[in-house]
Amino acid sequence: MAYQHLFFDLDHTLWDHHRNANETLKDLFVDYDFDQNWEFTADQFTDSFHQVNFHLWDRYRQGSIDQDFIRKERFPKVMAQLGVAKSEVPVSLAEEYLQRCPRKPHLMPFTLEILDYLQERYSMSIITNGFSEIQETKLSCSGLSPYFSTVVTSEVAGRLKPHPQIFNFALNMVRASGSECVMIGDNPVADIAGARSAGIDQIYYDPANLNEAVDSTYRVDCLTQLKDLL
Ligand SMILES: [Mg+2]
Questions:
Q1: Tell me: the pLDDT tens digits for 22-69?
Q2: Are residues 130 and 57 both part of a single domain?
Q3: What is the pLDDT of residues 161-170, one digit of tens each?
Q4: Same domain, 136 and 211
Q5: Which of 23, 36, 85, 225 qualifies as a cystine partner to 220, CB 3.0-4.6 A?
Q6: Does 133 lie in the same domain as 154?
C-alpha cells in the first residue's frame, strides 16, 4: 500500500486516558481527604467519573453541550451520583483535575516502540477532539511531541471528529490526499466512520476487543500489529 502519512487519535489510542485519569482521581481522593468526609471509596469515585465523563463527551460530540459545561458540571455530576450535594463539592476540584491529569505520562502498551518504527517510514500527525492546550500538555509530558509534525485539534479545525471538516483540515495541513493517508484510532464513530467519510482508510484499534462488528479497513488489538500493516 502507498500510504505516506499517518493520522493518530490521541486519547485511548496512544495516551492511556483511563490509567492517567484514574491515577489523578486517586491522588485527588487522598489530597482532598474524601475518605474523612464521605462514605464512598476511591474506586467508586473513579467509576462514577468514567460514567459521567463518557456521557458528557458523547453530548459534546453531538454539539449539545460545550467545553465550559463539561468543566463546570463534570465533578458535581460525579459527586451527585455518590450522594454528595453540589454545594459540598470543593470548587477547586475541576481545576485541579485539569491541571494534573494532562501531566500524567502513561501511554498505551508499545506506543513508543511502534512510533520509533513508524517515524522512519512515515510522517505522522495527531487528530484529536480534545482542547488544544490540554492536548499539547499531554503530548509534551508523555514524550510524544517529537513524533508528530502536526497536531490538529477540534478547537483549531472548527469541527469535531467525526465531521469530515476536521479530516479535510488535517489533509490540507499535511498537503496530502485522502488516499495517501490512514487514520488510526479507538473510536468507531469519531475516528473510523469519520475518516471513512473523508475518504481516508482506517485502522481500528480495539485493545479490549469490544466491537467485533465495526467496519474498518483494518483492525488491530495491539499497537505492535501496526508493523504488519505499515
Ligand atoms: Mg480516542
A1: 999 999 999 999 999 999 999 999 999 999 999 999 899 888 999 899
A2: no
A3: 999 999 999 9
A4: yes
A5: 225
A6: yes
Q: How far is the CA of 16 from the centre of ligand 1 (A)?
A: 9
Q: How many domains are there within the chain?
A: 2
Q: How far is the CA of 38 from the centre of ligand 1 (A)?
A: 32
CATH at residue 41: 1.10.150.240
Distance 190 CA to ligand 1 centre (A): 8
Q: How far is the CA of 82 from the centre of ligand 1 (A)?
A: 27
Q: How many CB atoms lie within 10 A of CB 228?
A: 8
Domain that holds residue 152: 5-16+107-229
Whole-model pTM? 0.93
Question: Are residues 77 and 191 located together in one domain of the fold?
Answer: no
128 C-alpha to ligand 1 centroid (Å): 8
Q: Of the residues 103, 128, 155, which one is the last residue of a structural domain?
A: 103
> Cell digits for 108?
498505551
Q: Residue 215: helix, strand or coil by DSSP?
A: coil
Ligand 1 centroid from CA 92, angstroms = 27
Can you give the pLDDT at residue 1?
58
Which whole number is the average pLDDT over 184-195? Answer: 97
- CA gap 125, 38 in Å, rounded: 44
Cell of 37: 468526609
Grid cell digits, residue 77: 455530576
